[in-house]
């Protein structure tokens, strides 16, 4: 009997050990077991440094980064550039490279539309090749591609196709482009205008270009806004309300959107498509300090006002500013890469970046490589919202 009991206990022990040491690599629910290296990485102490302009220089980028500090207080370190960043490039480079002095720093992110910051990332690569760099700047695309791990920018030029296409789908049969001489001296704005014109021709939509008084010369923006106030009713009388109005200058939209609610024309997208551009002022929205980052709430307010005015379906844009979105995307991507043991090569594809935005961001993005051979440089357009 004693021998029989001993034998049974031995069998039970073997069975228990087998049950606790699965050789299939799956848990009881059949999902893949965690990557051991990814689990170890997730437990490592590490930091993500992000550099933006100050609050007074660029509120969106600053707030976007600060929200990430609040979400990941033990991980994200936020530094700001000198306010004279345009003329103090050396000071900016110093701010960025100082982050690499921290041995726990594993990711350095940069978000500002300046030029001349590439030397900072050349220095970081020489000093700390283990650091992953994710950058938004206006430096030469080839330099960014060569010296940073991932460059991200808003695809302002591709909007020359997406905006008139969306306007046509919203019912527009005329597309009016308002600008002024000093703005149209910009190569990117000329490219976008030309793409808008070509897209309109392909769609069978009339393209009309109107030049306003130049706010950067003469009498400032007052003359430009007065011209818009007088010209918009004339254009709508001529072409009808199935007309889309686009202006290249942000202050224009205080008049454009106000007149849209009076005249009933289409505004498929502002020059800087965001619910916080002109809409709060024109519609007298009561937005508190706490509401500033609550884009769902702000968009709901705009949708309600559009419905009340019979403008449903005639107004569109992006659900949040790309200038807030991009720094937040950078941080979320860095956290995901670290927690899952990914390298930069694992994320450099449209499929990955598009899917990541859908699964981990409040708004989906459509990514495209910046150009042939620029596999480290990606441009994005955000998902549309219709009011």
UniProtKB/TrEMBL annotation:
- The answer to whether keyword NADP applies is no
SUPFAM superfamilies according to UniProt:
Periplasmic binding protein-like I
Q: Which domain of life is it from?
A: Bacteria
The source organism is Pseudoflavonifractor hominis
Name it: DUF3798 domain-containing protein
Keywords (alphabetical) are:
Signal
Q: Is rRNA processing among this UniProt entry's keywords?
A: no
Hey, what's the signal peptide range on this chain?
1-18
Give one Pfam family.
DUF3798
């Amino acid at each position: 009997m004693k021998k029989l009991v001993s034998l049974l206990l031995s069998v039970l022990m073997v069975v228990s050990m087998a049950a606790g040491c699965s050789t299939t690599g799956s848990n009881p629910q059949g999902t893949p077991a965690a990557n051991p290296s990814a689990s170890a990485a997730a437990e490592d102490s590490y930091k993500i440094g992000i550099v933006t302009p100050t609050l007074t220089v660029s509120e969106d980028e600053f707030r976007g980064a600060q929200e990430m500090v609040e979400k990941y207080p033990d991980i994200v370190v936020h530094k700001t550039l000198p306010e004279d960043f345009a003329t103090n490039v050396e000071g900016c480079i110093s701010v960025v490279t100082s982050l690499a002095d921290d041995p726990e720093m594993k990711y350095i992110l940069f978000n500002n539309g300046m030029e001349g910051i590439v030397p900072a990332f050349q220095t970081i690569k020489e000093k700390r090749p283990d650091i992953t760099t994710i950058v938004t700047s206006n430096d030469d695309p080839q330099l960014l591609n060569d010296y940073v791990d991932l460059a991200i920018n808003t695809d302002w030029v591709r909007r020359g196709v997406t905006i008139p296409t969306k306007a046509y789908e919203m019912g527009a049969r005329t597309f009016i482009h308002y600008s002024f001489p000093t703005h149209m001296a910009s190569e990117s704005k000329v490219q976008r205008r030309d793409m808008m014109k070509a897209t309109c021709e392909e769609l069978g939509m009339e393209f009309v270009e109107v030049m306003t008084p130049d706010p950067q010369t003469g009498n400032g923006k007052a003359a430009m806004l007065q011209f818009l106030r007088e010209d918009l009713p004339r254009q709508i009388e001529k072409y009808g309300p199935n007309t889309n109005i686009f202006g290249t200058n942000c202050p224009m939209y205080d008049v454009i959107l106000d007149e849209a609610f009076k005249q009933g024309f289409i505004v498929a997208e502002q020059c800087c498509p965001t619910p916080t551009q002109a809409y709060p002022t024109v519609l007298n929205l009561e937005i508190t300090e706490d509401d500033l980052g609550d884009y769902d709430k702000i968009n709901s307010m705009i949708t309600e006002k559009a419905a009340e005015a019979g403008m449903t379906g005639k107004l569109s844009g992006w659900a949040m500013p790309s200038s807030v979105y991009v720094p937040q995307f950078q941080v979320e991507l860095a956290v995901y890469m670290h927690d899952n043991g990914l390298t930069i090569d694992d994320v450099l594809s449209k499929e990955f970046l598009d899917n990541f935005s859908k699964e981990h961001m409040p708004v989906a993005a459509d990514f495209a490589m910046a150009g042939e051979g620029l596999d480290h440089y990606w441009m994005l357009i955000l998902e549309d919202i219709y009011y």
